Amino acid sequence: MSLEHRELRQRQEGNIAGAEIAHVLREQFGDVPLPSGEALVEVKRFSLEAREVLEKEGYVVHTLTGQSIKSLRESGRKFWSTWHKDYPNLEALTSKRSEVAVNPKQLFLPKSNRKTLAEQEAMVEEFSKKLGRKIKGVKAIIGEAPDYAELAFLHFEATDERLFGQKYNHDYTRTETPLAGVNVASVGHFGGSGLRVDSWGREHGSGSVWVAPLVVPA
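^ that's the sequence the OP posted. Answer follows.
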């Protein structure tokens, strides 16, 4: 079975998320054959009801496909930062295989900058509880560095709008990806030269380091 046949079958079966991931992979790698008897890893997806409410609330949904910073770069996506090439474990970390939703009109949680990671985690937990009471079957999390990286490129390719770009003051979101010492990765400053992956201390706040919650299926 080829990726094209896989996409067609998923659409026929009504699995739109599965068809989308096959389509994304086919665009990246061509219509390659799949090993006999081996199916693509399915993504977690929102219920139709949850997706409808999310979209009414201004959220946009993208499908993360298990990409790494390395695979994103090798597929032609541009990164302004280069230091992470020397950290193969970071570069190999993959994004979730899941639908994720963000609200471009409120990408960052208000007043979440100048906070420690622990304070930001508490804010996202509270936000998740409130959102879950409003929209059944969803939760909010802080993602890993490759989650935000793939999301930024997917959104740009779909809308020509750069999350973490000029509209967002080129600010960053903190992530849950640990780096050397007490630092964690941050992702942002998305401009014409590419997306930047940076590092910031867990216990230090910054005016430009916020938290952008990812809404995912619960």
